[in-house]
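FW: tagging you since you asked about this chain on Friday. Here's the raw sequence from the shared folder, copied in full. Didn't touch anything.
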Amino acid sequence: MSEMPSFPGFPGEGLTFLGELATNNNREWFEAHKGDYRSYVLEPAQAFVVALGERLKLLSSEIAYDTRTNGSGSIMRIYRDVRFSKDKTPYNPNLRVVFWQGAGKKTDNPGFFFGMDAQGAGLFGGMHTFLKPVLAAYQEAVADDGLGAELEAALESLSGAGVYEVGGEQYKRVPRGYDPGHPRADLLRYKGLYVRSPKIEPDVLTTPALVEVCFEHCRIMAPLHHWLVRVNQSAGS
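HL: got it, structure written out here
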């Protein structure tokens, strides 16, 4: 990984490729432009993974990244799994990159997710969906006076840092066994919890400054990340 070239920004051709793929989402077009995908999206993405991954280790030395492009690394596959989807288009017209902390499957752990298409990019920090043991540990932590207050503080710290959105699927009601009138009842209803950054404009994506822009968003999201890491570890995941 140390031999990976420095990251100069994504080439404009990469954004053009993603935009054209969105309107030509079929195998024939993709196969004819596969070289563009490799040169203008995949290879720059590998350099981006290393550059941002090394910066993120300043937040936690245990944050992991991987430059493999077969789906096992940080770069998610461009091929869509259409088996259970009404949308049968075969490709994702965006670049998706994951940095994670914890053992096991990368997407089951707290981490940071970078998503980019022709219109811009965004960063997410947290966990999209809690596995059953993590969900139980999360609910216990939210209900706990000390840990629950720490989560509130982590989320409140975002309010003064810009337009960050808290997201995650929620139950309609507070889970059984918890007081519906609990002061953190809304947080108890989450099935996954993450924060989304403000939009990163296309003109930033084509410059080396993208790494520092992403790192700053991750730094702001770090209190939530660290809290979720503790919960995830307590669940034995």
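FW: The beta strands are 95-100, 111-117, 120-127, 165-167, 193-196.
HL: agreed, and The longest strand covers residues 120-127.
FW: great, closing this out.
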